[in-house]
């Protein structure tokens, strides 16, 4: 065996370079989920062929979004996922939520004129949660976003809160209107009877302090339900 053979670079290094070049040419638009994930994994795992791990993660969690939103404990169950990989995946998740939040907060007029941006933020922030989360998005007099507050976490199919907790937060924030948002982990965004009752109760509580409940959104991974689009709030 000659010296050139002994120092030959592993085959996966050339593959990594080709992946990077493909990504830079199209910013990932033509890449399958497992290929995009593979490129991410190369940055966390520098000395291994990571394609098998990327394919295994996509198979288990269903999509690129499913992987970065997976629970820490579940990710660490996978052979090959260590602290570096976990950090990289959660960094991408955090970056996705932050960018969508900053886009939503840009002063470009009332948030209801930018429903697509609102839904994108809500979906990135909570649609992959395995329990229901109730968020309140607080708005100023121009109906621009002040902040988003996680008010309550529930179970896989239920979340509840007393309206007075929302009223207290409205007064503390000095908001002029709110949007209520919660997710359905099942993906079925049809409102339950409890959702309908909660909406009525919060709407009445807001009216008592001259605050408008502009909408109550139910978020799923691929769809959403808007109370404002179906009933007169």
Q: What do you see in this structure?
A:
The chain is α+β, with helices and mostly antiparallel strands. The chain folds into two domains: 3-97, no CATH class; 108-230, Cytidine Deaminase, domain 2, CATH 3.40.140.10. It has eleven helices and five strands. A five-stranded mixed β-sheet has the order 2-1-3-4-5, sandwiched between helices. Helix 2 packs across helix 3, helix 3 (33-44) packs across helix 7 (83-105) and helix 9 (163-173) packs across helix 10 (193-208). The mean pLDDT is 91.
Helix content: 40-55%
Mean pLDDT: 91
- Our measurement of the CA-to-CA distance between the termini, rounded to an integer number of angstroms, reads 79 Å
Oligomer type: single chain
Rg measurement, Å: 22 Å
Q: Tell me, briefly, the overall form.
A: elongated
Order of helices and strands: HHHHHHHHEEHEHEEH
Overall domain count: 2
CATH class membership of the largest domain: Alpha Beta
Low-pLDDT runs: none
Q: In what range is the share of β-strand residues?
A: 5-15%
Provide the fold topology.
Blueprint: H1 3-6, H2 11-26, H3 33-44, H4 51-61, H5 64-68, H6 72-76, H7 83-105, H8 115-126, E1 133-139, E2 145-153, H9 163-173, E3 177-183, H10 193-208, E4 212-219, E5 224-226, H11 227-230
Parallel strand pairs: 3-4
Antiparallel strand pairs: 1-2, 1-3, 4-5
Helix pairs in contact: 2-3, 3-4, 3-7, 7-8, 9-10
Can you give keywords for this protein?
alpha+beta; Cytidine Deaminase, domain 2; 5-stranded mixed beta sheet
């Amino acid at each position: 065996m000659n010296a050139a053979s002994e120092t030959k670079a592993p085959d996966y290094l050339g593959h990594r370079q080709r992946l990077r070049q493909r990504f830079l040419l199209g910013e990932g638009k033509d890449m399958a989920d497992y290929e995009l994930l593979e490129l991410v994994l190369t940055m966390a795992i520098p000395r291994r062929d990571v394609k098998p791990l990327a394919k295994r993660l996509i198979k288990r969690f269903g999509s690129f979004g499913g992987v970065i939103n997976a629970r820490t404990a579940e990710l660490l169950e996978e052979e090959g996922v260590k602290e570096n990989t976990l950090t990289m995946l959660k960094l991408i998740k955090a970056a996705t939520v932050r960018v969508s939040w900053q886009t939503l907060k840009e002063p470009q007029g009332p948030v209801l004129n930018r429903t697509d941006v609102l839904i994108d933020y809500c979906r990135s922030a909570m649609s992959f949660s395995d329990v229901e989360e109730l968020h309140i998005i607080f708005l100023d007099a121009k109906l621009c976003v002040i902040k988003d507050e996680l008010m309550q976490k529930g179970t896989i199919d239920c979340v509840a809160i007393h309206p007075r907790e929302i009223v207290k937060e409205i007064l503390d924030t000095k908001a002029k209107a709110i949007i209520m948002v919660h997710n359905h982990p099942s993906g079925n965004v049809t409102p339950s009877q409890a959702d309908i009752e909660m909406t009525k109760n919060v709407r009445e509580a807001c009216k008592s302090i001259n605050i408008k409940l502009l909408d109550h959104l139910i978020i799923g991974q691929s769809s959403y339900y808007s109370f404002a689009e179906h009933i007169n709030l």
